Amino acid sequence: MDVSISLVKNVILLDSEGKRVAVKYFSDDWPGLSAKLAFEKSIFTKTHRTGARSEAEIGLLDGYIVVYKFISDLHFYVTGGEDENEIIVATVLQGFFDAVSLLLRNNVDKKNILENFDLVLLCLDEIVDGGIILETDANVIASRVAMRGANDDVPLSEQTISQALATAKEHFARSLLK
Amino acid sequence: MASLPPALKKDDDIDDDSEYSPFYGIEKSAVLQEARCFNDRELDARRCAQVITKLLYLINQGETFTKNEATDVFFATTKLFQSKDIGLRRMVYLMIKEISPSSDEVIIVTSSLMKDMNSKTDLYRANAIRVLCRITDGGLLGQIERYLKQAVVDKNPVVSSAALVSGIHLLQSNPEIVKRWSNEVQEAVQSKAPLVQFHGLALLHQIRQNDRLALSKLVSGLSRGTVRSPLAQCLLIRYTCQVISELGPNSQTGDRPFFDFLESCLRHKADMVIFEAARAITEMSGVTSRELTPAITVLQLFLSSSKPVLRFAAVRTLNKVAQTQPLAVANCNIDMESLISDQNRSIATLAITTLLKTGNESGVDRLMKQITNFMSDIADEYKIVVVEAIRSLCLKFPQKYRSLMNFLSNILREEGGFEYKKAIVDSILILIREIPDAKESGLSHLCEFIEDCEFTYLSTQILHLLGNEGPKTSDPSKYIRYVYNRVILENATVRASAVSALAKFGAVVEGLRPRILILLRRCLYDNDDEVRDRATLYLSLLSDEPDAAQDDAKAFLFQDLDVPLENLEKSLELYEPSERPFDLAAVPKDTKPRHQTEKKAPTSKEKKAAKDASKKSAEGGASNTFEAYEKLLNSIPMFAGFGKLFKSSAPVALTEEETEYAVNVVKHVYPGHVVLQFNCTNTIAEHLLENVNVAMDLIEGEDFNQVATNPLASMPCGVTGQAFVAFEKPEGACSLGKFSSTLRFYVKEVDPSTGDADEDGYEDEYQLEDLEITAADYILKAGVSNFRNAWESLDSESERVDEYSLGTRESLQDAVQAVTTILGMQVCEATDVVPSNARSHTCLLAGRFLGDTQVLVRLSVGIDSQKQVAMKLAVRSEDPSVSDIIHEIINS
Q1: How far apart are CA B171 and CA A130, in angstroms?
Q2: ipTM
Q3: Which domain of life is it from (chain A) (predicted)?
């Protein structure tokens, strides 16, 4: 039995046509861009017809545990090794998915993700570090991404309405500036 | 050139807003231009952050930067540390990690990062630690070690975790530094923050993983204490299992240390811990059914969870348990059956294959009905898994071959890709080979299949099998139509194998020969060379009138090529067209690639045979060693009068590996004779051995008289040759004996560079290990499809029962193994596997004794707490004296 710490192989975010939106690989199992794209294509074709909308779905694809969940035009995937505890992999997916939902105020679609691409990257960075799970609690992840909770421990979900409005305004202004 | 963003290729039903992408038309060169704003005196933090986002987007899409581009971007990015903007700083950290600067560049950012490591903002500190540890090398680490050590015990979890995780990464490259943090890490393990505990535990384990005692202490300490984080608890379970497997069960009480801890984890509130513990218990070596029960119970609850992940995890684990302990999982069968209709096809497939393993014989038919509906809507890769499970089920319950074979032939007719079809055909081939009763129906299913088969490889494989097996069936003529249809309808490769198959029917079944000849004549006008060649060759072979010629033809058609193909290919390449024909006998028979010059004078027929035979073996089909031996022995005149070969043993090595001369022996048993075939290989390039003889002396036993020897004339390096010694023994008797043997030969020195041997040589000998003729040599493995029926049909008068004590044994498995090896009989109904921890077991054996007498054995064993094994052996046979002999074997 593998006694090493749980390791995440990759986190993948694809659009409704299977194209890459954001990805992060932590393992050398897929050397080079073409191997990575081939893996993404493979898991997309094997999963896009399934209804992983309300609950996360799972499969043993190409010899890896892949847990996935879809929302609007986005497909979230987290991959673990064949012998990994499936529920741990699912917890990472749930953490990523919920943190993104919190940060985007439940408006999770491809357009919003691309407009807030920096937040998605920071989110990935706060969840897994070099394959090791850093944090799985969506509230904590989201507040670290938003640089809140660094000094005052107010999770994002517990912000006041005015704070929330301010963040929303800021995002709105940003998209206008582009 | 920018490629079109996906949004432009959208479907009409996506509304217009989604066409907009902030990265529309993004181009690397343009973004690199934009990055110059990093050098502005007045930094626009927002703009810089946007440019970094664009750069990271490009990297994320798989864009790469040249060395120079990366260096430029890196230096520009380092300027951004001047800005106090929080968002920008975070992006700078990300950017530095993505670029991973070279070691001489790292120095530029070190001071900025070290400043951030001492910042008041904890998130800066955490990120600065992670970035610095990612890009740093060993030398720099010494400078910051003090900070890292402090960070490990920082009160803010984010800082502490960052330091611990970095420590885990650094342990690979700088173990000696990280090991100095032991005390701090130990403190972190006691932290109140769940994730800090998780990272601390992981690091502590890695530091101590080679110290068994420390590990055991760590586990026993924590398993009593409180672990807050479910992730950390999962780790603790893994480490506990490691300790358990190293300690083994307690020798006095039989209890496992820490098992109570694992069991208590089954009642944890987090699913991931429950599952980790349940899985750990099922994977323990030698797990008892008492230990297994609570774990199976929680997994069973998961089976009906609303979450697919839980169902999947549970069914996958139970599937693994079912491979070794099907009975333990049988309780879950009802839940499993409802999973067959699960939306998630992975879960459904796992459920089916589990059921196939746990099901009993009576449930097979019902299960097959359910699977038939299921098969139509799953992907090929799942279907293959199911086919393989059905194959092993059929081997387990040979009586059920009818319904299982029908199922396979039904799915063979459905749509499917090559891999899937191949899995089905392979399964049918195996079943035909293993279950004699299934042969005829299997063959006719395959015949139906090749009528409409789009895969050349499968068609040729099936035709080859039809040629070998079809003529031996009760009504060979019915296959001719299928085979000849192929000659009319298929491509050249299939036509050629169909012609070969036809010829085999003609060779074996005399009544069909005239009609086969007519069919073969029609193939003479085929437009493919190979098909015509084969037809011509077979026609001339089969048209010969005398019986002897027919035997030749038969031997030629059915013989297997006894030289490795790659050697043959090499020899053919070396062969230069000349007066001297190519000699198949000169092709080296060992697998080492070797160049050999040709010496003997062979016939052109052999050459053709080589060509044809090589094709035949390429068409598939495992070589039949017994037939090969039989043919080899029949070709030696002095053994021809011994009658029909009864059994050939597997080769037994008589020398250590990698000695000068490698020798193994194959024991061939005839009714009144035993022939020992010594396969000798010379591994010394400087020696040529001639007149190689084996001198044998009887050490034990009396019944053997040496009657003939057949020495090996010449034995150059690397070529395996055979020397034979034949013994006479009383007809039909099971004579046992032990021999000492010595290899005698004449050595000639060889100059390795030229390959020329000296004229003169000397005599030498080489001591071989002793060899024994055992009872198993007289018993042929011959399975029966239904042991009970076979047992009942034998006269109960012939039954001999006796009880034996086998003394102390490790396990029942051990005892069963030992007895089956001594008897050398075929295990029936997979009864050779003893469920672990079973107290008693019955194993069924079947075989044929010298003289073709059927003999069946019922072997019951039991073990007591002192590991004393008692055995009851019931033997029935067509000849009561054989039953006695079996008992004598066990007695001796």
Answers
A1: 13
A2: 0.84
A3: Eukaryota
